[in-house]
Specification:
CATH class of the largest domain: Mainly Beta
Mean pLDDT: 88
Shape: globular
Number of helices: 9
Helix content: 25-40%
Largest sheet: 11 strands, antiparallel
CATH architecture of the largest domain: Sandwich
CATH topology of the largest domain: Tumour Suppressor Smad4
Low-confidence stretches: 154-158
Number of domains: 2
Number of strands: 15
Order of helices and strands: EHEHEHEHHEEEHHHEEEEHEEEE
Radius of gyration: 19 Å
Distance between the termini: 23 Å
């Protein structure tokens, strides 16, 4: 078996390279042929992955590294995605119930099953014009997009998850979030937040927000939060932590094949996918069947 460890040499913890070396040593002890592949720069990983001849492609880093790897693994003829958690959030790793110890996570996945799943596809407005990306875990427009945009600074790398909490509290306390149009299943309504999530554990304070999300679901689980944001967003967090999702009058969860955000809305809204800021609305989202091979625990492989 041939495995490639993809990693960003300029990101992550101080002992990032030591962790990569330790993972490589552990996999070789299990008779896996291992190669390491540093990314060439921002936005380059997708093309690198497309050109790699490998059986397993381990994205070594956080959810951003996974997101970059997915751009090259979508419809890849042979490679399967694995995850080595070295980031601050590690949402996908948590959903897969991987150990947050890199070596243990690597060895866990040797018993996992290569499984085909759907990938999300998002089209959005960027400085370069109309752009598109694949996403694995989540996509959103509204407060989460604005928060991720603010976290593009070095504070995220220096402070880890605590940076999310401090910035989120400040953002929600000082920002007025305006509603925008969301069209799903032929119906247009207004929301201050639109988030489609495909994993059940976003980690930390965000853990209970989407307990029913599932990578295998044939549709997107879309959560819409309506105005007023200063009431509805705290209610979403509070009632989710109390496991009282059904009693929240401000949120609505839909299962849809696709949806659009921002059409006919004057002010653009920030868009993020897998914790990476992409651009602005208008945004269109669809689910692409059988687009990615990923290592899943036996119980989750279908």
């Amino acid at each position: 078996m041939r495995a490639t460890l993809l990693y960003n040499p300029n990101a992550g913890r101080a002992n990032h390279r030591q962790s990569i070396d330790a993972v490589a040593k552990a996999l070789r002890s299990r008779d896996v042929e291992v190669f390491t592949e540093p990314t060439n720069g921002p936005g380059t990983a997708g093309q690198q992955v497309r050109e790699i001849d490998t059986d397993l492609l381990f994205a070594c880093g956080g959810d951003g590294t996974v997101h970059e790897a997915v751009q090259g693994l979508a419809h890849h003829p042979s490679a399967t995605l694995g995850v080595i958690p070295l980031g601050s959030a590690n949402a996908l790793a948590r959903h897969l119930k991987l150990s947050l110890d890199p070596v243990e996570a690597a060895l866990q996945q040797l018993s996992f099953v290569s499984t085909k799943i759907s990938l999300g596809h998002v089209s959005f407005a960027s400085d370069a014009g109309r752009s598109e990306r694949y996403f694995l875990s989540l996509v959103g427009a509204g407060p989460d997009g604005m928060l991720v945009r603010e976290l593009r600074s070095t504070a995220k790398q220096q402070s880890g998850r605590s940076a999310y909490y401090v910035r989120a509290a400040r953002l929600f306390a000082t920002t007025r979030f305006s509603p925008f149009n969301v069209t799903a299943s032929g119906v247009t309504q207004q929301a201050v937040s639109a988030m489609a999530v495909r994993i059940s554990d976003l980690g930390g304070l965000f853990s209970p927000l989407t307990p029913a999300a599932d990578l295998h679901h044939p549709q997107l689980q879309l959560t819409l939060t309506r105005s007023p944001a200063e009431v509805s967003l705290p209610a979403w967090f509070g009632l989710s932590w109390a496991r009282l999702h059904a009693l929240n009058p401000f949120t609505r969860t839909l299962f849809v094949d696709s949806f659009q955000c921002g059409e006919g809305t004057r002010a653009p809204v920030s868009v993020q996918a897998d914790g990476e800021w992409l651009g602005h609305t208008p945004m269109s989202v669809t689910l692409v069947p059988d687009a990615l091979r990923i290592l899943l625990p036996n119980a989750d492989a279908r």
